[in-house]
Amino acid sequence: MAAPGRDSLVSALVALRRLPLAAAKCARGSVAIEYGLIGGIVSIAIIAGAVALGSTLGSYFQSFADYF
Description:
1 helix
């Protein structure tokens, strides 16, 4: 016969064994969120730069067209 409480000890050890795997899955999700935020910030910066450059180039070419 098994000793009393042995099943709970085994299940606790199995849970402790799986803990690093659960933590790694959680870390992967947070890394993906961080990369998503970085990608969003970079895309906003690129769009803002393109808008600023577009308006600057538009006024430059308009002054060039007015010259002729």
